[in-house]
Amino acid sequence: MNTSKKSVNNDPDVVLIGAGIMSATLGMMLKELQPDLTIEIFERLDVVTAESSDAWNNAGTGHSAFCELNYTPQKPDGSVEINKAIKIAESFELSREFWAYLVEKNIVTSPQDFIVNTPHMSFVWGNDNVDYLKKRYQALTKNHLFKGMLYSEDPAEIGEWAPLITEGRDPNEKIAATRMDIGTDVNFGELTRRIFNYLKGLPGVSLSLNHEVRDIDRQRDGRWKIEVKNRKGGKKRDLLTPFVFIGAGGGSLHLLEKSGIKEGKGFGGFPVSGQWLVCTDPAIIERHQAKVYGKAAVGSPPMSVPHLDTRVIDGKKALLFGPYAGFSTKFLKNGSYLDLPKSIKLNNIGPMMAAGIQNIPLTKYLIDQVRQSPEDRLNALKDYMPSARLEDWKLEVAGQRVQVIKKDPKKGGILEFGTEVVSAADGSIAALLGASPGASTSVAIMLDLLKRCFAEKSNSEAWQNKLQEMIPSYGKSLAKDAALLEKSRDRTARALGLNGVEV
Ligand SMILES: Cc1cc2nc3c(=O)[nH]c(=O)nc-3n(C[C@H](O)[C@H](O)[C@H](O)COP(=O)(O)OP(=O)(O)OC[C@H]3O[C@@H](n4cnc5c(N)ncnc54)[C@H](O)[C@@H]3O)c2cc1C
């Protein structure tokens, strides 16, 4: 895709920085809510969605907390905490509702190109882990969001679900698995490209590729001056806007710092890079049809939970294992090694040092991961596929995640693994920091942002009606209302071409 800037508006209503799934979602919602809005979108690369939102840079899991064990920690009394899992499962349903709306309106077509059913499985071994998984299953299935989840300790049954994980395994090893058939694999890159293709054709919207936002400055009248540089021609351009969304992924922290808003003080970033093993043997790829998530190794960050994952990318089935975490000072895959040092400022050096000291085991873990030999990586894979051979897999680089470091009154600074919207009190600017659960919850994140930054309009009858049309369960609780969930899943399954489930 070449630059698609079709008009120059130096005074737009909205500036979106970065062309990943977050800006796409916000831009799409805003244009549906208020079609006369003018929006300028800037992307520093020569294509949209080439960083984290691209299919090969993330795991494509429609995070619904069906299989991810890090969303259901075990409490000291041995019981399993499920509040976070419920929140994430509900958030994913909101994404399904919005995507179904886009399909029903013909805004995006052929949903099978970006979302397909892929069973979500959790898989563990060892008595303690089996005990934990059983408790997790019992706790989750009390809520209708998780109805349909299956549990098994029988190697033969687990082998039917996913033969690669049982073949060659010690028959005396205690194993257990859960399975949710309505789990999904999502090509977030394809979805994002389709949304931008539609958006850039709308009146009042302009998308400029190869354009990097270099500076953001508050003006006396409350608006923001945005300085943009054309990375191809070198030309600079200034714009004035009443609202900016910094959806620059790993580049967001740097721009938040430039804005100087007091709400952004004290934030830092801790970059974690990733790699996958990608299977090269079509016969092996064909034999696996699930996303199999395990337990993170002790001391490892939650987002490095290993998984053996069926993917469907550009209509082709693939098999990934990973991610293997690593450390790089870059904040973007296409970023600079100076990203981390340049992000350190007087206002965040304290929280960053405090978080660094508390997370020495994490740093050590990342260094160990970087130093892994191919045989070490194979051994990790063999935990999930005992018959794996190195020659059937190749190593690929995944996207870069920047975990949030923030001030903490007690500890000085803490490292967080979620996402965080940071916005100015007047709602004129917002930035999205962090990585997980990420793209799957983009719709819930943007609904929250609309409430904060467009508070008055969000409460208007016109916006409320449109929000209900786009996301029918908006403002209601899918976790508490089984009938509403059934209706929602039925509708979204039909629109997106997915399996239904009896709730
Ligand atoms: C290894 C890995 C696995 C993941 N797995 C999953 C998963 O299974 N499921 C899931 O839901 N999520 C997953 N995620 C998270 C998900 O990918 C991200 O949350 C999501 O893609 C972030 O979207 P974004 O739009 O904020 O950022 P991005 O997609 O990174 O887009 C930001 C854009 O901003 C541009 N940009 C940066 N600086 C500037 C600037 N100054 N001017 C102009 N443009 C700029 C960048 O070039 C980029 O195109 C994963 C992430 C990683 C790295």
Describe the protein's architecture and organization.
This protein is α+β, with helices and mostly antiparallel strands and 503 residues long. Helices cover 32% and strands 24% of the residues. It has helices at residues 21-33, 83-104, 127-140, 155-161, 163-166, 188-199, 252-259, 282-286, 339-343, 349-358, 360-370, 374-382, 442-453, 455-459, 461-470, 482-496; strands spanning 14-17, 39-42, 115-117, 120-125, 150-152, 175-180, 184-186, 205-208, 211-218, 224-230, 236-241, 243-246, 268-279, 291-293, 307-313, 316-326, 393-397, 401-408, 412-416, 419-423, 429-434. Helix 1 crosses helix 6 (188-199) and helix 2 packs across helix 16 (482-496).
Q: Which molecules are bound besides the chains? A: flavin-adenine dinucleotide
Q: What's the main sheet like?
A: 10 strands, mixed
Mean pLDDT: 92
Our count of helices gives 16
Q: Give the radius of gyration.
A: 22 Å
Shape: globular
Low-confidence stretches: 1-6
Total number of beta strands: 21
Classification by helices and strands: alpha+beta
- How widely separated are the two ends? 43 Å
SSE topology:
Blueprint: E1 14-17, H1 21-33, E2 39-42, H2 83-104, E3 115-117, E4 120-125, H3 127-140, E5 150-152, H4 155-161, H5 163-166, E6 175-180, E7 184-186, H6 188-199, E8 205-208, E9 211-218, E10 224-230, E11 236-241, E12 243-246, H7 252-259, E13 268-279, H8 282-286, E14 291-293, E15 307-313, E16 316-326, H9 339-343, H10 349-358, H11 360-370, H12 374-382, E17 393-397, E18 401-408, E19 412-416, E20 419-423, E21 429-434, H13 442-453, H14 455-459, H15 461-470, H16 482-496
Parallel strand pairs: 1-2, 1-12, 2-8, 4-14, 12-21
Antiparallel strand pairs: 3-7, 4-6, 5-6, 9-10, 10-11, 13-16, 13-17, 13-18, 14-15, 15-16, 18-19, 20-21
Helix pairs in contact: 1-6, 1-13, 2-16
The structure holds flavin-adenine dinucleotide.
